[in-house]
Amino acid sequence: MSHSWKKILISPESSIIQALKIIDNEALRVALVVDENQRLAGVVTDGDIRRGILNGLTLDTAVSEIMNTSPITACVNTPKKELIKLMETRSILSIPLVENGAVVGLETLHHLFEQPTYDNPVFIMAGGFGTRLRPLTDNCPKPMLKIGDKPILETLIRSFISAGFNNFYISTHYMPEQIKAHFGDGKELGINITYVHEESPLGTGGALGLLPDCLPKDLPLIMINGDVLTKVDFQRLLAFHEENQADATMCVREYDYQVPYGVINGEGNKITSMVEKPIQRFFVNAGIYVVSPKVIKSVPENHKIDMPTLLEQHMQESDNILMFPIHEYWLDIGRMDDFNRAQADIHTLGLD
């Protein structure tokens, strides 16, 4: 998603000359016309302006006279491949992204084909014992179990590489030598890998206190459990965190639970309503975070703490801990059923 999309928003009353200046200055070749609630009213391109002028309109005319009032749009969470196909099919160079009717971004064909690079550290938790996957983990750390023809951890790292990340830190504890022997310093993959070792388990948050001082001082860090198989868009996750200037962002998934009985509500001995096997919906932690340097620095060395507890502490200091709902494929490979499902899914995900 283009990071400068907010600069191309104009009102329907704006003049053609104002739209022309935005199109020329912002290099996105389009202006988005929105109402007071940021709902998309139309789109203006250089071609629209030229056609308006040819039809006798002046540069002081309101853009509402020339804008395309039925532009092609897409949901903010539309996968990259679908956006590319939509733009190529419709012969358009950009597409507004909407959520609940409001404009929340702009994607361009150039940006989708361009491979950005990120210096943001990626911190992978790979020290767990994997006790629920025994006997598979008796002689192999869980992140090194193969899904398809590659270890879980390699599939995860390659997903980040595809998204433009190259600076990795891996936290180890259980059988670290197998992980180090497989990946080394990362040069064979074209990346840099630094290991931090937990002498005793410190929890997902405590491992932050082991990171070296040479981390980039002003860049947020992406943190993820090493047993997660996912197609989450890490670029959009990072952009969401930075655009909202969050202290930390937690990825969450919607989890449905159906009560197996009819639920009765009442006042005293009087029944007020009855709901047969209602479904309750919750957001649950997906084990993926973006963490600001402020939060990282708050964790002392060798301090045992889990991420939810750490984030709760920061929530008491500020209201800047956000959640990022994910709809993409996500699987925490913690049990044998999950492991078997991953073996079946990997070939259809495009991750193998």
Automatic annotation (TrEMBL):
<dbReference type="Pfam" id="PF00483">
    <property type="entry name" value="NTP_transferase"/>
</dbReference>
<protein>
    <submittedName>
        <fullName>Nucleotidyltransferase family protein</fullName>
    </submittedName>
</protein>
<dbReference type="InterPro" id="IPR050486">
    <property type="entry name" value="Mannose-1P_guanyltransferase"/>
</dbReference>
<feature type="domain" description="CBS">
    <location>
        <begin position="67"/>
        <end position="122"/>
    </location>
</feature>
<dbReference type="InterPro" id="IPR046342">
    <property type="entry name" value="CBS_dom_sf"/>
</dbReference>
<dbReference type="Pfam" id="PF00571">
    <property type="entry name" value="CBS"/>
</dbReference>
<dbReference type="InterPro" id="IPR005835">
    <property type="entry name" value="NTP_transferase_dom"/>
</dbReference>
<feature type="domain" description="CBS">
    <location>
        <begin position="1"/>
        <end position="59"/>
    </location>
</feature>
<keyword id="KW-0129">CBS domain</keyword>
<dbReference type="InterPro" id="IPR029044">
    <property type="entry name" value="Nucleotide-diphossugar_trans"/>
</dbReference>
<dbReference type="InterPro" id="IPR000644">
    <property type="entry name" value="CBS_dom"/>
</dbReference>
